[in-house]
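General statements about sequence and structure are easier to judge against a single worked case. In the encoding step, the backbone of a single protein was reduced to a row of integers, each denoting a local shape. The record that follows shows the chain in one-letter code together with its fold in token form.
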Amino acid sequence: MTIQAISKLYTANLENRVVLFSTNLKDFAEALASIEPTADPYHTLRRKFEKQSEIQFTVGQKEYLLQEVYNAKKS
């Protein structure tokens, strides 16, 4: 059995708590849409994450911080 290192982690933070995470952006976008249907779709999130590693996302009174985190120990 081979263990692979995680190269990227996507998180959705609400009120300083991680409410969603995934190592795959497509899965992350689908899960985010299941809790917030007005969230940006996968292709839009991909374009935004190409430009920045943090995205603000507001729904009503809820303000999410979406993050793309890289593993510094890539080999």
The chain has one domain: 8-70.
